[in-house]
Amino acid sequence: MPHLDAVVVGAGFSGLYMMHRLRQRGLNAQGFEAGKDVGGTWYWNRYPGARCDSESLSYSYSFLPELDQAWHWPERYSEQPEILKYIEHVATTQDLRRHFRFQTRVTTADFDETADLWTIGTDQGDQVTARFLIMATGCLSQPNWPAIEGLADFKGETFHTGLWPHEGVDFAGKQVAVIGTGSSAIQSIPRIAKQADVLFVFQRTANHCVPAQNHAMDPEAERAYKADYMAKREQARHSFAGDVVPELYITIMDLSDDELERELDRTWGQGGFYTQYPYTDIFTDKRANDRVMAYSHRHIRSRVNDPGVADLLCAKDHPIGTKRLCADTLYFETYNEDNVHLVDLNDTPIRAIREDGIATSDRAYEVDAIVYATGFNAMTGALTSVDIRGCDGRVLKEVWNDGPVNYLGLGVHGFPNLFTVTGPGSPSVLTNMVSSIEQHVEWVDRCMTWLGDRGATRIEADQEAQGRWVGYLNDSANATIFPLANSWYIGANIPGKARVFLPYVNGLKTYRDECDAVAEDGYAGFAIA
Ligand code: N01
Q1: How far is ligand 1, taken at its centre, from the CA of residue 186, in Å?
Q2: Tens-place pLDDT, residues 218-242
Q3: Per-residue pLDDT tens for 376-407?
Q4: Strands annotated E in 136-287
Q5: How many domains does the chain have?
Q6: How far is it, in rounded angstroms, from Cα 357 to Cα 84?
């Protein structure tokens, strides 16, 4: 059984950077990745229109500044193939692929308390032991297939946006159904509608959605960003959102109606998350949020010809931004096309999938293809799908039954030498993911170095420190209006999942300071042996 210093699970942005750091320190680390190649999220999510709504100039590693100077992103928010090309380039130039075993899924991990070692098993029959197990498995990587009766009976083509075929899909001449109206649907629907003969969109909950305002990369913006690159990256590292964006400075409730209209015209003109960044009270005062929501609804109604359809597309059941905000390009205008039909599942719920299509309470929809844009078992799914067993036979999935208890979003009591990169309890999905990944990887690397320097073989979150951290996470979330929404942030999209707010809400800067303080205090809150 090969013995390793560390096993890294996943070869996306986080796994690749983790491997790079470990190998630079001369450690013997082995990576495992279920996909055929690197890329993680950007390897799997190849649906038409897939792109990131962090701006491309800042959605890349900061540890390769020369590459960022040379790299050209074609659009403000570049598409998936461009992001994947960047990750592949990094893997090639940093020679990272040879440390990963691809098409290999980690299935088991058992901690041996006498030796302080993990034994890790894969679906290909590998068995390795490692001092550290680093789960770089992503926050949105376990696709959610809805529990709809008859799903397997459908005789046409079935797709999930998070598992899109590499060869692409041609919907020309076809009748297509899309189930779901989250970010993946909102990006793919305009593209699918252009190809398909007929497109039925099955909507259970309308999502708040703002214009992306994507465009070809502005050469002047690119030049200015690159000229001031180091300062901008430093600013991002120590910002709330992990990005170079406006920090909170405007209080909505201080503005008159006219002032607010002008202000929102301005941020809607910037697009995407710029519609939320500047506002101090949008997530803490429902009245402020309601005013922004009313503006957003007016904007949507101005883009959709049929007032009834427009009304259905206006999200009303949750405050704006409390489910992940979607950024669109021509999403609402797509419903003005004759071949696109919105099916309101609140009015007519899906009863079953049939051999030839979808049956709702009032009619049957015959289709050639069904696209499930039904999201992911977010933040915990990829971790609990591995049979991880810690001290005294504890099983992570069971320990997390009532919610993912953890310390700093990095460690779990009872599971020594296990690190979760951007795990639950960390800012991750509420920030620029790459900034948060870099912070975690660097913290884990520093911690492992510190342990190695002292000859320590074991680090484990204290139960008490973990309890305090979980309390702090919940109190922080409850001071906002995020918990009002039935979102994947709170586990509401997965039947039976504990209702616990999963990400850390106080922003990357505060979180980084807290993690650094723990490290400087000799890893306070962790037991070291
Ligand atoms: O998934 P989602 P997603 N019957 O969970 C519906 C990131 N991302 O893949 O709201 C009918 O948001 C569900 O309805 P409801 C981003 O963080 C980023 O779109 O549960 N419908 C919902 O409409 C994002 O938030 C980018 O009532 C069912 C949809 O499926 C996250 O990934 C792009 C159903 C799922 O929406 C996930 O986004 C894409 C059922 N049984 C994704 N079950 C960018 O950076 C579920 N639904 C731009």
Answers
A1: 9
A2: 999 999 999 999 999 999 999 999 9
A3: 999 999 999 999 999 999 999 999 999 999 99
A4: 157-160, 175-179, 198-203, 209-211
A5: 2
A6: 33
Which residue's CA is the nearest one to ligand 1's atom 13? 180
Query: Ligand 1: residues whose CB is within 6 Å?
Result: 51-53, 140, 146, 148, 161, 179-185, 187, 202, 204-205, 324, 327, 345, 350, 373-376, 429, 488, 493
The CATH number that applies at residue 206 is: 3.50.50.60
Q: pTM for this one?
A: 0.97
Q: Which residues make Cβ contacts (< 8 Å) with residue 298, sequence separation at least 6?
A: none
User: What stretch of H or E contains 414?
Assistant: none
Q: Residue 150 CB: number of other CB atoms within 10 A?
A: 14
Angle between helices 433-453 and 229-237 (to 10 degrees): 80
Domain-located, residue 278: no
Backbone angles phi, psi at 112, to 5 degrees: -95, 110
Q: Ligand 1 atom closest to Cα of 345?
A: 11
Whether residues 415 and 474 fall in one domain: yes
- Rounded Cα distance between 383 and 84, Å, is 23
Q: Which residues span the domain enclosing 157?
A: 151-237+284-372
